[in-house]
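We modelled the chain as a single entity of 287 amino acids. Its sequence is:
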Amino acid sequence: MKLRKAVIPVAGLGTRFLPATKTVPKELLPIVDIPSIQYVVQEAVDAGIQEIIFVTGRGKDSIEDHFDEAPELEQVLAERGQTENIEMLRRIAEMTEVVSVRQKKPLGLGHAVLCARDLVGDEPFAVMLADDLIDSDTPCIRQLLDIFEDKKESVIALMEVLPEEVQQYGVIKGKEIEKRLYQIQATVEKPPAKEAPSRMAIIGRYILRPEIFSILQKQPPGRGGEIQLTDGLAQLVRERQVFGCQFLGDRYDIGDKFGFVRATVAYALKRPDLKTKVKDYLKSVVH
């Protein structure tokens, strides 16, 4: 089974970033000068995924527009002789095929994934959460894909977190069968630290078999009155093998303000045009 599609839920309101997100989707807020969602899509493209399915909500059409052609803007840029910018815009429009489906009510991540069922069809697919930026030599979703192609079973990304952070995540109970590879025995959504089965947290990258759809269809609302993907995974674990990959790379939670600042600084330091200036500025602030 070849994996061709990635589902990216982007229907959230982004209330943590008000007032900026009153009119601009949080996924289009820039990390330096590149919208954060572009990094996530680029990760999928670099992993060989051919189609992006956005699960959107009201006011999110501009996300899909970002990956479309912009002939009027190109004409203005051509009149100004800005050929490099024209080429950059065309590269974005040609990155991948993009389609979208609406999540009409905010009923949870599991419900958002379920909204993409008709567009995914009866085939395996990736789920990539836009709030997680993962900087790695091998794209994080590619690391999971390599395991899926070997095991032919669902794979989720894992990261070890501090004990006091466990209650912020879905976590797994599992057995390490190879270095950084776990066979998952159970998943728990945001457990209290004392009740957590491990410190291995589920991060926003998944490779899922299509059986997850029938599970989510029957899934009752869980924590917060929402259909939780973690609860669906807990049922999938009871029916099939599910693996966890402790990925290699740096993860930034850009749904959090401090995480967004960390990502902006980290990605600026990777830029040849900014690296020295940013380093010098940070040194001056520290001193």
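As a brief sanity check on the tokenised model: The chain has a mean pLDDT of 92. The CA atoms of residues 78 and 86 lie 7 Å apart.
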